[in-house]
Specification:
alpha/beta, Aspartate Aminotransferase, domain 1, Aspartate Aminotransferase, domain 2, 7-stranded mixed beta sheet, 3-stranded antiparallel beta sheet, 14 strands, 40% helix
Length: 399
């Protein structure tokens, strides 16, 4: 009997997309559904991005492009990251991919052999564990509950790195929690990392332009420049520019790593298409009014969501300062019922909430934290208040 490769037994479909598809099906059947599930920014890029894409079609070469990424795109990215203090990088330090997810997968292929260990904090973005499983790597998951604001402590990191994992993957601002590490917190973690030279560091920081409360974005290399030899910074156009479907991801890091990803691109994707490249250059180099305006809107929405979270007795929700998520601990609802439906865990809660109130959220177990759920508050503004009211009503109706 013909069989698939063993790794396919370890591959799982996206739990986030499963919730989104269920909500979509209910909406198609006529239900009034408000989705807080999928993490898309729900705005479109500026007109100059579309103009650049259209203009590129008039002079399309129809030829293969660079495996690393077009020079114009790399240069635009380099100027983009200079604005957040990542200076001194060149094209040789960079490579591109079909979105940050593809870049992360390629990094895992380039850095991890089967049986190697990758360490990361919990809650985590679902893809981290999935990639490790597919490639046969071991995950060292570091629990960071709501009681410590979903943030990794220096002591935790010290203990983890002492075991010499091949890779430490760090996410700031965080998906799914929206938490942002302060300047002092990043500096303290960087001091720990400096003690352990045998571990690669990936900073998955695609929300680096979505930081609130004047907190600012900080990277390990800001405080420990010597870490540049093993820190790989990951970025994307998806969130900042409202371009998740355009699929453009980047890295900046050691030349050896950038070269490895470029080699993998030559086997996987060849290149990013010309029209996408033109749009990417325009997004990075053109007017920044759209992402600036949207960041302010997301901060206001964060405040609106947190006002409701803070009003619900028993619910614990650390205040996020970036991205567009909140990640409340809903365990106070476990053991209760809604309309005769017993809620034993986060999946029960999300299913009951969707069926009873038409509000779709992602169970926290998808992110390694089964006491919680993720709310993505990027839905159209007129839907946010009604969705939050339904969420509040659901809690009030628990018995």
């Amino acid at each position: 009997m013909l069989k698939l490769a063993q790794r396919m037994g370890r591959a799982k479909p996206s739990a986030i997309m499963a919730v989104a598809e269920k909500a979509k099906a209910l909406k198609a059947s006529g239900r009034d559904i408000i989705s807080f599930s999928i993490g898309v920014p729900n705005f479109l890029p500026g007109a100059h991005v579309y103009a650049a894409a259209a203009a590129s079609l008039q002079k399309d070469s129809g030829q293969y492009g660079s495996n690393r990424g077009a020079d114009a795109l790399l240069d635009a990215f380099l100027k983009h990251i200079e604005a957040i203090g990542l200076t001194g990088y060149t094209r040789a330090n960079c490579s591109t991919g079909i979105g940050a997810k593809h870049v992360l997968y390629s990094l895992a292929e380039a850095l991890l052999d089967e049986g190697d260990t990758i360490a990361y904090a919990v809650p985590y973005w679902t893809t981290y564990a999935d990639i490790a499983d597919i490639l046969g790597a071991k995950s060292l998951q570091l629990p960071c509950p709501a009681s410590q604001n979903y943030k990794l402590t220096p002591a935790q990191l010290d203990a983890a790195l002492a075991t010499k994992p091949k890779v430490f993957l760090f996410n700031n601002p965080s998906n799914p929690t929206g938490m942002v590490y302060t300047r002092d917190e990043v500096a303290a973690l960087a001091d720990v990392i400096a003690k352990y030279p045998d571990t690669w560091i990936i900073t998955d920081d695609i929300y680096n332009r979505m930081v609130f409360d004047s907190l600012g974005y900080h990277n390990f290399v800001h405080f420990r420049p010597e870490l540049r030899d093993r820190v790989i910074f990951v970025d994307s156009l998806s969130k900042t520019y409202g371009m998740p479907g355009w699929r453009v991801g980047f890295i900046a890091g050691p030349e050896s790593v950038a070269k490895a990803l470029t080699t993998l691109n030559s086997n996987h994707i060849t290149n990013i298409p010309e029209v996408i490249t033109a749009a990417g250059v325009a997004a990075l180099s053109g007017p920044q009014d759209v992402p600036t305006t949207k960041n302010a809107e997301f901060q206001a929405k964060r405040d609106q969501v947190m006002a409701v979270m803070n009003s619900i007795p028993g619910l614990i929700c650390p205040r996020p300062q970036g991205a567009f998520y909140v990640f409340p601990d809903i365990s106070c609802a476990f053991g209760k019922s809604h309309g005769g439906t017993k809620i034993n865990n986060d999946v029960d809660f999300c299913n009951a909430l969707l069926e009873a109130k038409g509000v779709a959220c992602v169970p926290g177990s998808a992110f390694g934290e089964p006491k919680s759920l993720r709310i993505s508050y990027t839905c159209p503004t007129p839907q946010l208040a009604p969705g939050l009211q339904r969420f509040q009503e659901f809690f009030a109706e628990l018995t």
